[in-house]
């Protein structure tokens, strides 16, 4: 006990000595009144940059395969009726990794054509952004449907574009998102059908047996899980998702 007290006392004595001998950096933030237009412009640029950074993850997710994947996985959970199993964290993690798998060729192209040349100071920041946007546009054009593109072209009342280069990103991105939602719901409907048939069969059998008070979901859930396991449901769902981006 005496040794412990002596050790604590020695540490308390050494801390001020070490702090006084080492020059620790400090960070100070302040707000002052802008006196020149340049200071106002800098403040607005910082505010705009922080705003873009806060919404950047959502923008990246909405322009990739994430939307279709997470919606289809959500439909699978709802169709089986397993409530929160798998949990949201598992579905989001699986959707993110599948998104990276689908987007790997696109990201590799961005890395070789835009990021690496910019890091080596061979191109400017503007050129890197333009090249990256061009690669992402190619991916979105490969998945978007003409009907969705035409819808937003008609809404904006712009001239009919002659080729892909004349289609602005403000039209392409919402059209791509709408197309992804449409395909995800189509796949979700096809997933729902076999589980709905099981629910209807179980409900009919229970009504024929006069068991009105027994919820059909209690009986149908084990059968739906059994069917999903026997047909290797996760492999079928993930495989269909990956092939849908081909």
Describe the structure.
This protein is mainly alpha-helical. The chain is built from nine helices and no strands. The protein has helices spanning 2-21, 37-62, 66-80, 88-119, 125-143, 146-156, 169-208, 216-230, 233-244. Helix 5 (125-143) runs parallel beside helix 7 (169-208), helix 6 crosses helix 7 and helix 7 crosses helix 8. Residues 4-22 have low confidence and may be disordered.
Blueprint (SSEs and pairs):
Blueprint lengths: L1 H20 L15 H26 L3 H15 L7 H32 L5 H19 L2 H11 L12 H40 L7 H15 L2 H12 L2
Helix pairs in contact: 3-4, 3-7, 4-5, 5-7, 6-7, 7-8
Fill in the keyword field for this structure:
246 residues; mainly alpha; elongated
Outline:
The protein has 246 residues and is mostly helical. Helix content is 77%, strand content 0%. It contains nine helices and no strands.
Binned, the helix content reads over 70%
Q: Stretches where pLDDT falls below 50 for ≥5 residues?
A: 4-22
| Silhouette | elongated
Q: Give the class from helix and strand content and strand pairing.
A: mainly alpha
State the end-to-end CA separation: 71 Å
**Which value, in Å, is the CA radius of gyration?**
28 Å
- Helix-strand pattern: HHHHHHHHH
Q: Which percent band covers the strand fraction?
A: under 5%
**Main beta sheet strand tally, sense and closure:** none
Average predicted local confidence, pLDDT:
80
Number of strands: 0
Number of helices: 9
């Amino acid at each position: 006990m005496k040794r412990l007290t002596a050790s604590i006392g020695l540490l308390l004595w050494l801390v001020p000595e070490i702090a006084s001998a080492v020059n620790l950096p400090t960070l100070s933030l302040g707000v002052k009144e802008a006196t020149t237009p340049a200071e106002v412009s800098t403040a607005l640029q910082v505010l705009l940059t922080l705003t873009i950074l806060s919404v950047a993850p959502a923008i990246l997710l909405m322009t990739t395969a994430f939307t279709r994947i997470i919606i289809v996985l959500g439909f699978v959970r709802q169709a089986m009726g397993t409530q929160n199993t798998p949990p949201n964290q598992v579905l989001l993690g699986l959707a993110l990794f599948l998104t990276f798998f689908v987007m790997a060729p696109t990201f590799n192209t961005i890395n070789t054509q835009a990021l690496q040349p910019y890091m080596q100071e061979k191109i400017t920041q503007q050129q890197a952004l333009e090249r990256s946007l061009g690669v992402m546009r190619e991916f979105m054009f490969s998945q978007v449907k003409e009907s969705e593109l035409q819808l937003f072209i008609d809404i904006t009342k712009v001239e009919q574009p002659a080729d892909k280069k004349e289609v602005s990103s403000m039209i392409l991105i919402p059209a791509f998102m709408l197309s992804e939602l449409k395909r995800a719901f189509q796949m979700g409907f096809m997933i729902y059908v076999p589980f709905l048939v099981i629910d209807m069969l179980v409900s009919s059998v229970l009504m024929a047996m006069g068991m009105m008070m027994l919820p059909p979901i209690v009986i149908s859930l084990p059968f739906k899980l059994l069917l999903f396991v026997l047909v290797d449901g996760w492999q079928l769902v993930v495989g269909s998702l990956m092939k849908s981006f081909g």
